[in-house]
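Q: Here's a chain of 213 amino acids. Please give me its 3D structure as tokens.
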Amino acid sequence: MGRFDLPVVDFWYEFASTYSYVAAMRIDALAERHLVNVRWRPFLLGPIFSAQGWTTSPFNLYPAKGRYMWRDVERLCGEFGLPFHRPREFPQNSLLAARLALLGATDGWGEAFAKAVFVAEFGEGREIGRPEALAPILTKLGLDAGALLARARTDEAVKSRLKAATEEAQSLGIFGAPNFVTEDGELFWGNDRMDEAFDWAAGQGRHPARRPG
């Protein structure tokens, strides 16, 4: 069976999401092991949170939950051998990075870019919201940083694509990140549900009949 014959799982990620960082750095090895293909889907949580009346991350709104999250991510990074450095600002503005990731998804460098942004943000504690913070990442990938940044900031088609992706995520019932959505529409939320999502996609899950409604 070739890679093109394998089931596909959509990986919905948000650059401002700590658990998306952990998932992004683990996903290739797990996908290979489970014999699935992954489609990386950047989106924005801000509009989804706003629809719930939230002005920031629930990890900021509920301090106890936030303290737990930071310690949990620190433990996970230790477990998986990932660098971790808590950024000074959380959540960060991920708009520009997400637009660039969409451009990269079309041109073949989206995954490498996403991983590099996550490492910069949560592995090194760097700020990712400004063009000058993202330019070195693009340059290191051998890309024309100036042209891509200009396009991400001004191209109405790119803006519309990200808006549509976020609306699609919301229509799927996504309320946080990361998420894994299988071809039959099953939604698995959280870094700790990646194995289950891939098992389901590969036909190893139980696939119970959906209940009406």
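Q: Can you summarize the key feature?
A: Strands lie at 8-13, 37-42, 179-182, 187-189.
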